[in-house]
Design brief:
two-stranded antiparallel ribbon, two-stranded antiparallel sheet, 0% helix
Length: 65
């Protein structure tokens, strides 16, 4: 891909996505911290991803029984 692009599924921004330009493996890294506690009837998991440039992505709660 030479450049990224955006696409809106609806006329408002909450249902839109952006595909960024691909970068080589040596230009990114990840630090992962996991915390799991025993729940009574199941577990909820959240994910937050933050980049050095301030961009972020979030995954809504996912429930595992």
């Amino acid at each position: 891909m030479d450049a990224g692009f955006t696409y809106h599924l609806k006329s408002y921004a909450s249902q839109a996505f952006k595909v960024h330009t691909a970068v080589p493996d040596n230009l990114y890294s990840a630090v992962v911290t996991l915390k799991d506690t025993k729940g009574e009837s199941g577990d909820f998991y959240f994910a937050e991803v933050r980049q050095c440039n301030g961009h972020a992505a979030y995954v809504s709660p996912v429930y595992f029984k």
